[in-house]
Each structure stands twice: as C-alpha cells, then as structure tokens.
Amino acid sequence: MDYKQELITTIHDFGCNLELLEARLTQLSETSPTAVLIPALYAELERPALTHTCEQLKLCKFVNTIVVSLHAETQEQYVRAVQFFSMLPQPTFVLWENGQRVVQLLEKLRDKGLNLLDFKGKGQAVWLGLGIASLQAEAIALHDADIITYDKSYPLKLLFPLVEKELGISFNKAYYARLGGYPNQFHGRVVRLFITPLLAALTDLLGYNNYLRYLGAFRYPLSGEFALTNDLALSTRIPGNWGLEIGLLSEVYRNVAEKRIAQIDIGIFDHKHQSVGETADQGLRKMCRDILRSILRTLTETERVVLTSDHIRTLRVKFRREAQNITRQYFVDARFNNLHYDRHQEEITVELFEQVITEAGQDYLDNPANVQIPDWTRALAVMPALREQLREATRRDMADAEMMLNGGQSKSVPSILPTDNVSSTLMPDLSQRG
Hints:
- This protein has helices at 18-28, 48-57, 75-85, 100-111, 122-136, 153-163, 189-206, 210-217, 230-235, 244-255, 283-301, 309-336, 343-366, 376-382, 386-405, and strands spanning 9-11, 34-41, 65-71, 92-96, 139-142, 171-180, 185-186, 226-229, 238-239, 261-269, 372-373.
- With 434 residues, the chain is of the alpha/beta class.
- The chain has a domain at 1-167 and 375-412: Spore Coat Polysaccharide Biosynthesis Protein SpsA, Chain A (Alpha-Beta Complex), CATH 3.90.550.
- Helix 7 (189-206) runs antiparallel to helix 8 and helix 10 packs parallel to helix 11 (283-301).
C-alpha cells in the first residue's frame, strides 16, 4: 500500500467506508443525476460476466439511468437484448447502434456534410451512447461488458468524485491490479510490457515532456473504466480505433486542467483476454500499433515534437532495454508472491511488441492523419436535435422489441421502456480548461 500522489490526483482505497459513500452519492444523485454507459456486443449476453454485472447494477440506487450501446446483427438478437436488460430496475436505454433507425440518423448527418458512418467498433458505440447519456445525466460512468470481477463499488468509486462537486473533478479513471487465472498470474500485457517501457524509452529519447509525464501518472492507462461530466462527454473527440483508451486520455489532456483529473483504485480486476495476434493487424499487436500512433500524433499535435525515422529506430533500441528490465522486475515480484510467471513467454511477447514500433512508426510518418470521431458539439452544430432524435429512435426500437416479446400486443412493460427522469435540456458548461 502507498499514498503517493501523481501529476493527477490519485484516490487510494485505504479501507474507505463504501456504505457511507453510497448513501452520500445516492443523495447527491437526486439533484445531480448519474448514468452508466456499457458498450457491448450481442455475444456478451451469452457470457456469465454480463449477467453478474447486471445483478450488481440492480443494487446501485445511485445510478439513475443505464445506457447500453449494443451491436446486434439481427432484430432477433436486439429483442433478446432488450429482454435481457429488462432485469434492471433503472430506466434503461438499449441503443441498437447498427440498427436501421440509428443508421438513418447518421445518414442524415452525412447528407448534411458530416460523415460518421465509416467509424465502426467500440469508438462509435461509445460516441453514440454518450449522446443519450449526456441528455440524462450530469456524470457518466463507462465500463465494458466483460468484467469478471464486477462489483457495485466500481460505478460508486468512478462517479462519486464527479458528483461531490467540492472535489472539483471532471474526469476519473479506474486503476487496478490485473491478476487472475489458474494458476494466479499477472495479466495486462500491453500495459506492463508495452506502454510502461515505451513511455520510459520515449522520455529517455526526448527528454522531459509534460504529456509523457501525464501518461506515466496513470497507473493503468488502458483501463476501459472511467467517468466524465456531460460537458466533457460532448466536447471530447472519441478515437475510432484500438487506441481508444490512450486517445481518450490525450483528449482529456487537451481539454481539462490537470487538477480536475483523477484516478481511483478499484482493487483487483479481471476480464476476458485478447490473444497477442498472428500479425501486426491482429490482437494485442494491433492494439499496440494503434496506441503508439496515437501517442506519436499527440506528441506532434500538442507538444510540437518533430519526429523522424531516426527517432523511430532509436526508440526501438531503447524500448527493448527498458522492456527486458521490466520482465526481470516482474519475475522478482511474481516469485515473492508465489504467482505463476513464464519469463520466456514474456520475453517473446516483448519481442513481438518491439516489432510493432517500426511498423507503427512508419505508418505514422507516412500518414499522420487523425482516426477520431468529431466531438458531439460539432455534430450538434449540424443537427441540433440529434441527441433527442437518437433517444427517440432508441425508444421506438425498444417499443418494437416490446411488441415482439408480447406476441405482437402493445401491452406496456415499464421495466423495458425508459422515461425521462431528468430534463432533456441539461446544459453543460463547455469551459473545461483552468
């Protein structure tokens, strides 16, 4: 245990009184409504993790609205999802991100000169979900649908620092220990074996850099669990590739004063694991590739760092030395804690990640263009009622699902169709810096 502070505020868990925090957040949420956003594939419904997550969310009286941004291939899958999430007592929007009504809205936006149809995957799911969630809530927590260790304390810890206004926090990101499996072992290979040595190598190569120091302050920069205010949700560009988490941190760095950024300890955490990948365009190797491109782009865009092919070659050499040192350190830590640790396999993974540096670096030098979805403020400048239309499209999709579940009858199912429990005109303050 430690009490070290970083460039950003680090909120430790020294045995905090969760019952007291829950009572306070429940009270605060009556005037400062909250939402939880879950991007999900239909396949997650068939895994036990999401059922467990919903059982925990049932207990969260401090969560006013739940938005599920769902990718479903057929209407039957969507109907099944609506039925699945009807177990939740909170008003719940099951947004069919690739459904006809939502696609038609995006087509109207394209016809007006803003094309978002080319963006797919988690980035688009998050962007769409934030549209509805920002109408419903002042503070929004986001997490994935595959968390094995999910607990109601996760959204509690993420949301509390934002809703307790005297703390002055606008963005709060989870950190944790990635441990699990049989036998028990370290997970989180991209953070441990790529990002950590990469940041050390970049700092050695470029010297002191505030952006690199900022990224290094996050104890788990790739965590997909975070909370943000509704004004930040509207003014943040969402990365459209596998660099979403790092890219989002870069956007927060651009838009939010460091004193308003925090990270919070949520304990031991585990979810499903990706393969390393057979090629640089698969699995964790693709993730590393997109992450590095995002970091290099921000260094140029925000920090005015001019990068050359010589930098990329030198970075690869420095990365290998830093990564090899880290595998030795993890070996010592694992041995002391009786954790399984395959040092040879870790070294192989490091070598595969090292190869990504040359490929991703050259990709960036050849094509430094952004892969980011424009922020909501730009979309609203084109279609001012887009969020309300998106919410109404979701209500209609859910009403159709309700009729199918009732055999074509229009009998109402209150737990399925959400109603407004807050004003649809939550007007965010877009002045974040300072």
